[in-house]
Amino acid sequence: MNCLLTGASGFLGKAIAVELSKEYELFSLSRTSGDYKFFLEKEIPVFKEKFDLVIHSAGKAHSVPKTESEKEEFYKTNVTGTYNLLKALEKSGLPKQFVFISSVAVYGREAGTEIKESDDLNAKDAYGLSKIEAEKIITEWCSLNNVVCTILRLPLLVGKNPPGNLGAMIKAIRKGYYFNIDGGKARKSMVLIKDVASFVTVVSSFGGVYNLTDGIHPSFYKLSMAISNKKKISLPLGLAKFIGKIGDLIGDSAPITSRKVKKITSDLTFDDSKARQLLNWKSESTLDYLNKERL
Fold first, then answer.
1. Angstrom distance (rounded) from CA 4 to CA 200
2. Under 8 Å between Cβ of 7 and 61
3. Global model pTM greater than 0.85
4. Could you point out which of 21, 112, 158, 267 has its C-alpha 20 to 30 Å from the C-alpha of 119?
């Protein structure tokens, strides 16, 4: 069977490509490499093949927009890009199955525990809003065209050479300027990219919306120790809040603001029992992986 993977050159896309190539004739799409080279936000691609399965992993993430034009980039990439992909599939032939890689950012939460797929989507930021809109477009399109639709809402992704916040944390630990706040007690959901990749082939024929995590939701302290067992400095919460107030006067460019302190000291975990109960989702502990790999 033929499979199209967008975002094939990305952090998660590479892992999915390895897994899918075991079972499918894989065709990749990205901006600069692969079988199809297109900027989805700018053009409707032309496909030579009809695909049985499409996995839409391409998207913009890992940045905080500072201007309206930067916010617009999220919409163009994640919404317009999705729309153009669907239009291209209407011309080349409808797939049987469609998997969209979304994000827990759609919930718009900075704190909470065991957040479920049925919880409200309250994102206010450009990234979260663009993912909500993309989910809506895909869900309606799949329903209209009788395509099995799967949406995976993912938290922090873990693997070799990770981007985003985890990559920044690893870099800070290696250079010796990382510190926990309030003992690093706050717990966050995360998941290994290899586990997500293997689940894609299982879930694609069933459809539905799923949170995926490692089921452990490690604390910042345990996460930092798994990355490096060297002793870390812990900033007292009161001092961190004081520094955060000073940062508020500087603005979002400050390394510490009150909002950042609250975010980093609050639990934020997601419930993935739906995937575990319905489809026997199994995942490796991210801490075990990090201990072994020492990223």
1. 13
2. no
3. yes
4. 158
Q: Nearest Cα to 90, choosing from 134, 131, 149, 44?
A: 44
Phi then psi dihedrals of residue 219, to 5 deg? -80, 160
Q: How many residues are recorded in the chain?
A: 295
Residue 269 Cα distances to 133, 142, 212, 213, 214, angstroms: 23, 29, 11, 9, 11
Exposure string (b/e) for 65-95, b if CB count within 10 Å is 16 or more? eeeeeeeebbbebbbbbbbbbbebbeeeebb
- 241 is a domain residue: no
User: Is 258 a member of any domain?
Assistant: no
How far is residue 131's CA from residue 100's CA, in Å, rounded to a whole number? 10
**Local confidence pLDDT in tens for the 295 residues of the chain:** 999 999 998 999 999 999 999 989 999 999 888 899 999 999 999 999 999 999 999 988 767 767 788 888 889 999 999 999 999 999 999 999 999 999 999 999 999 999 999 999 999 999 999 999 999 999 999 999 999 999 999 999 999 988 888 888 888 888 887 888 889 999 999 999 999 999 998 999 999 999 999 999 999 999 999 988 877 788 888 988 888 889 888 876 777 888 888 888 999 999 999 999 999 999 999 999 998 876 5
Is residue 279 domain-resident? yes
Q: Which two tokens stand for residue 116?
A: 């479920």
The label of the residue with tokens 């525990």 reads: 113
Task: Please report how the helices 220-227 and 164-175 are oriented relative to each other, as an axis angle in degrees rounded to 10.
Answer: 60
Residue 238 half-sphere exposure toward CB, CA atoms < 13 A: 0
CATH at residue 51: 3.40.50.720
